[in-house]
Amino acid sequence: MGDTEHFIQGVEAKMSGQKTDVIVIGAGPYGLAASAHLRGAGANVRVLGKPMSFWMRHMPKGMRLRSPWAASHIADPAAALTLDDFERGRGERIDRPVPLSDFVAYGHWFQKLAGPAIDERQAERVERADGRFRVLLDDGESIESERVVVAAGIAAFAWRPREFDHVPRKFASHSSEHDDLARFAGQRVAVVGGGQSAFESAVLLHEAGVDVELIMRAPRIRWVGRATRKGFLGRLLFDRTDVGPAGVSHIVARPMLLRHLPGSMRRAAMRRSLAPGASLWLRPRSEGMAISTGRHVTAATRVNGHLELALDDATTRRVDHLLLATGYRVDVRKYGFLSPSLLAALRIVEGHPVLDAGLESSVPGLHFLGAPAGFSFGPLVRFVAGTQFGARALTTWVARHEVKQAPVASADRIVDYRTAE
Ligand SMILES: Cc1cc2nc3c(=O)[nH]c(=O)nc-3n(C[C@H](O)[C@H](O)[C@H](O)COP(=O)(O)OP(=O)(O)OC[C@H]3O[C@@H](n4cnc5c(N)ncnc54)[C@H](O)[C@@H]3O)c2cc1C
Hints:
By secondary structure, the chain is of the alpha/beta class. It folds into two domains: 3-154 and 329-413, FAD/NAD(P)-binding domain (3-Layer(bba) Sandwich); 162-222 and 276-324, FAD/NAD(P)-binding domain (3-Layer(bba) Sandwich), CATH 3.50.50.60. The chain has 13 helices and 19 strands. It has helices at 3-15, 29-40, 53-57, 83-90, 100-114, 196-207, 231-237, 248-252, 255-258, 263-273, 340-345, 374-377, 387-400; strands at 21-25, 44-48, 123-129, 132-137, 142-145, 147-150, 172-174, 188-192, 211-215, 223-224, 278-279, 290-292, 297-303, 306-311, 316-319, 321-324, 348-349, 352-353, 366-368. It has a five-stranded parallel β-sheet, covered by helices on one side. Strands 2-1-6-19 form a four-stranded parallel β-sheet, with helices on one face. Strand 13 (297-303) and strand 14 form a beta hairpin. The structure holds flavin-adenine dinucleotide. Flavin-adenine dinucleotide binds next to helix 2 and helix 3.
C-alpha cells in the first residue's frame, strides 16, 4: 500500500460520524493543504481568507519561485493535485523556475478541485468562549468551532530595521508592500538586503530600466546553485524538499525528528537553511547592475524630496526610494486577530508558539501551520514543501484526539525567549 493510501485509510475512519469542526484561517498553500486533508478525512472545515493573496499582493510581478519544481507542490491527501497534474490539465508546459503567475494559477486550481468555496472574509478576532473558539469576521458576523488552525502566513511579520522608522513609507518601503516594481520606472532606487528577495527585486528593477543599486552587508554574494543538486550525488546530499545545505537537508526534511533535537541544533538548522543567498539563475540577469557588498546604510535623511543615504564607508547616495528587502521575523503576537487572553495563554519562544506533534499550541484546539511552526519543527515549514508534513501531522492528530478542555491560562505562562528552550 502506498504512503498516501495508508495515510487516508488511517485517518478517515476516525473522523466519520463525529462532529469535528475546524476553522482554518488563511488560504495560502498551508491553509489549502490543511483543509484538503481535513475534509478528506471527514472533518467539517471552514476556510477563511482570500486564496493565494500573499503571493498576489506581496510579491513582485515577474518573480519566479526559488523552490524547485519538486519542492513546490501543495499537498493534497491523494497526491493528485501536484504541479505536474496542473501542468498536464492545462496542456501547456510551465516554465522552470516556476513563474509567480503560474504558481498563483496553480493555487487557485488546487482550491477549486480540493474543496468547496472558501469564505473570503477576514478573521478579525479569535477568542475562547465556553470551551469553543469564537471567530469574529470582518463583516461583524461571528462563527464558532471546536478547533482553529492559524495558517495566516508571514505578511504580519515583515521586518523593517529600526533605523528607518522615521522615514515615511513613500521614501522607504518593505519589499512586501509591492506587487509591481514597474512603478519605480525612471527613479533611482537603493535595495537593501542580501537574500533572494533583495536580489530578485533589484534584478527586476534593473530590467525595468530603473537606476538601481543593491547594498548588502555580506562581503560577497552567496550563489545558490542547482549544479550540486543533480544526479546520484545530488540525491545523496539533498532531500526532494530541498531546504537546507548538503546533508542538513535530509534532517530538515524530517520535522518530527528535528522536534526532538536540542533547541541549539534546531536553531543551527534554521540559520543554515535560511542563510541569505541568491539563485544562480539570477546571475546573468544581474550583469551591469550596481552591487555594493560588505556595506550597510547607517543613516537615511530626507533632502529636497530625495533620500540621502549614508553608508558605513563614509560614502553617500542620493535616491528617490529605499526598498527594504529585509525579510520577516516571526512573532505571533503580531497576528492582530488573536485575543489578548489567547496570547497570554500561548507558550511563545522567540516569537513562535511551542507546538506538539499535531502542531497544537499550549491553547488546546489552537494549531499553527507555516512559519510560526518553525521553532518546533525547523525551516521546512517556511516553504511550500512543508505542506505535506504540516497537513498530515495536523489531520492525524485531529482525528485521534479530542480537544482538551483546559482553562485558558494566565499571562504568567508567556515564556521569556531569552531564557526558555
Ligand atoms: C518574496 C518571497 C518569495 C517566496 N518564494 C518561495 C518559493 O519559491 N517557494 C516556497 O516554498 N516558499 C517561498 N516563499 C515563502 C512563502 O511565503 C511560503 O512558502 C508560503 O507562502 C507559506 O504558505 P502559507 O499558507 O503559510 O502563507 P501565505 O501564502 O502567506 O498564506 C496565508 C494566507 O492567510 C491569509 N490571512 C492572513 N490573515 C488572515 C485573516 N486574519 N483572516 C483570513 N485570512 C487571513 C492571507 O490572506 C493569505 O492568503 C517566499 C516568500 C517570499 C516573501
